[in-house]
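Tokens in:
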């Protein structure tokens, strides 16, 4: 629910373009190994091999394009980070996202309406604000305003959470006292239950080789990697202390 509201709020901001969900980005294994070894300087020498087999993909929750700068932010939305023990799992997720971000500009240009990306950044968003401190590409909901330069965004999401919890509590009370009417949940006339938003399984015309791997189509020409990095707080926003 909060993820959908976040998408709608960012869509309403003229400075941004939000790409459709269901975009699968290949994870470049060589890049992920370099990132694990902190060998950032070697990333610029990598090129995408159009004939390689992509054994793994990463599907972002949101890809936000800043129109003025052609900066792309790949966002992974988490309800909470409390289940992540230590930083190891988070670092693995970050490296996976960065490895996928390396090929994002090429794929978005070739297969998503010629979307131009000059720089790709990643952000892991903790909607529960469950950590005592943030940084290095990990942000709490409290950072949303500064991350996207949209004052009031976090407050809107928090208010939505409050209203939703109140509605659930009211429903549970009705069930407990026996006043709940099941007919309230029946679909209205003209509604289409099959229209529920389900993540697309389309993998952009990649050939399924039948063994869990996919071949990248030849039109993804080999190219040097565009700059990638960790998302930063928007310079026009007031800094928020974690």
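Residues out:
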């Amino acid at each position: 629910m909060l993820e959908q509201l976040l998408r709608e709020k960012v869509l309403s901001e003229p400075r941004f373009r939000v790409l459709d969900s269901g975009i699968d980005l290949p994870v470049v294994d060589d890049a992920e190994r370099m990132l694990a070894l902190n060998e950032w300087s070697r990333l610029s020498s990598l090129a995408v091999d159009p004939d390689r087999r992509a054994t793994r993909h990463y599907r972002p929750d949101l890809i936000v394009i800043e129109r003025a700068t052609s900066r792309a932010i790949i966002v992974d939305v988490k309800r909470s980070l409390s289940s992540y023990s230590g930083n190891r799992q988070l670092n693995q997720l970050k490296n996976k996202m960065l490895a996928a971000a390396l090929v994002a500009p090429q794929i978005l240009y070739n297969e998503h309406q010629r979307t131009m990306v000059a720089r790709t950044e990643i952000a892991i968003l903790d909607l529960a604000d469950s950590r005592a401190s943030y940084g290095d590409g990990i942000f709490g909901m409290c950072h949303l305003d500064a991350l996207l330069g949209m004052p009031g965004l976090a407050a809107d999401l928090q208010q939505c959470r409050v209203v939703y919890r109140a509605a659930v509590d009211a429903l549970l009370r009705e069930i407990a006292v026996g006043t709940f009417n099941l007919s309230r949940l029946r679909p209205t006339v003209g509604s289409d239950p099959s229209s529920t938003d389900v993540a697309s399984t389309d993998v952009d015309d990649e050939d399924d080789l039948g063994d869990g791997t996919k071949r990248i189509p030849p039109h993804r020409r080999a190219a040097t990697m565009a700059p990638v990095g960790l998302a930063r707080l928007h310079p026009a926003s007031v800094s928020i202390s974690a």
